[in-house]
Design goal:
Layout (H helix, E strand, L loop, with lengths): L2 E7 L15 H16 L4 H6 L2 E2 L2 E8 L8 E8 L6 E9 L5 E10 L1 E2 L10 H7 L1
Antiparallel strand pairs: 1-4, 2-7, 3-6, 4-5, 5-6
């Protein structure tokens, strides 16, 4: 599966005094998108960590288009950009419930062996789920 979408409401604590989402929260929304993308493959970050793999973000780019506001129902669409090797890359689109584009983003994460802290290839059990 190369695509997933997940929707949730903006909470009050994620906004400033004007009810606009603080820009730094978008990185968390992207993480929610990745976690749910993995979950659709019957994988979790926890299971990967239990298998000795961590996935730190090594690149993050966000292009803000329009503000999300308190109580908006937003949808994070997460796209796997290409078959992962040592890195895994995602593109994202975040929409409000009127289907207005709020942000476009890209992240790159590296597969790292938890014990050695060195890069490794994407595990076969993940690649098999992408076919």
């Amino acid at each position: 599966m190369n695509f997933n979408k997940f929707s949730f409401r903006i909470r009050y604590g994620e906004t400033d005094q004007m009810g606009v989402v603080y820009h730094g929260n978008y990185a968390q929304y992207l993480e929610i998108g990745r976690v749910e993308w993995l979950r659709n493959l019957d994988l979790t970050y926890k299971s990967m960590e239990d298998n000795g793999i961590i996935l730190p973000v090594i690149h993050l780019q966000i292009d803000y288009k329009k503000s999300a506001i308190y109580d908006d129902l937003i949808t994070v669409e997460t796209y796997l950009k290409r078959t992962p090797l040592v890195k895994i890359e995602f593109d994202y689109k975040i929409y409000n419930e009127s289907r207005e584009l709020l942000a476009e983003a890209n992240t790159i994460l590296a597969f790292i062996d938890k014990g050695t802290n060195k890069p490794i290839k994407c595990p076969n059990y993940i690649l098999e789920k992408l076919i």
